[in-house]
Amino acid sequence: MRIVIAEDDALLREGLALLLKAEALDVVATAGDPDEFLAAVEQHHPDVALVDVRMPPTHTDEGIKAAVAARQRYPGLAVLVLSAYVEQAFATELLAGGSAGLGYLLKERVGRVEQFLDALRRVAEGGTAIDPDVVTQLLSRTRSDPRLDRLSPRELDVLKLMAEGLGNAAIAQRLVVTDGAVHKHIRSIFAKLDLPPDDATDRRVTAVLRYLENVRRMG
């Protein structure tokens, strides 16, 4: 796995590089600003990029804009965005282009090394990894949608874990239920959220992320 890191905090940037190298992962470049990051992606063609949301010069949304630009130029690039806070508007902008090979984590997760590495590998393999706190806030802000109000408490639990990017077996383990029970809940979620079986999108993620535009309107 070839990785580019975009983080303006030199200490965190080098710490991430050391952590990943210790796991025998190939950090091909590090960058301290969006221009350096985009140049590194063009030069090295990494499999995955770690990108901070807030970068120079204004430390607002430069990282998100750079990540969006990188994915537009290189559609196969997986991106794991790191943020110090839950920034829903930025998550919406990034996720608007599709959720495959995409992650959004709070920086505090980096300290939980196994969770961080699991998210990184999941994203690099084309999956999704969204921080549980982001999912919780998305759900709490979109409960006014009548389709979400149809879901039972257990279905909401399953939906949150789906949105984090967990598969059926991992959801079953987390909730201490059978795989069959999870499959049944997911079928019910799709039905209640009006997601037909022939939907061409990734219904697992769409079940939550389809409401991002609604979140933006509500915000």
From TrEMBL:
Q: Where is the HTH luxR-type domain?
A: 144-215
Q: Which residues form the Response regulatory domain?
A: 2-122
Q: Which UniProt keywords apply?
A: DNA-binding, Phosphoprotein, Transcription, Transcription regulation
**4-aspartylphosphate modification, residue list:** D52
SMART domains in the record, alphabetically?
HTH_LUXR, REC
- Any one GO molecular-function label of the UniProt entry: DNA binding
Which GO biological process annotations does it have? phosphorelay signal transduction system; regulation of DNA-templated transcription
According to its UniProt entry, this protein's organism is Cryptosporangium phraense
Q: Which PANTHER family does its entry note?
A: TRANSCRIPTIONAL REGULATORY PROTEIN NARL-RELATED, TWO-COMPONENT RESPONSE REGULATOR
Q: Show the CDD domains listed in the entry.
A: LuxR_C_like, REC_NarL-like
Name by which UniProt lists this protein: Response regulator transcription factor
Q: Name one Pfam family in it.
A: Response_reg
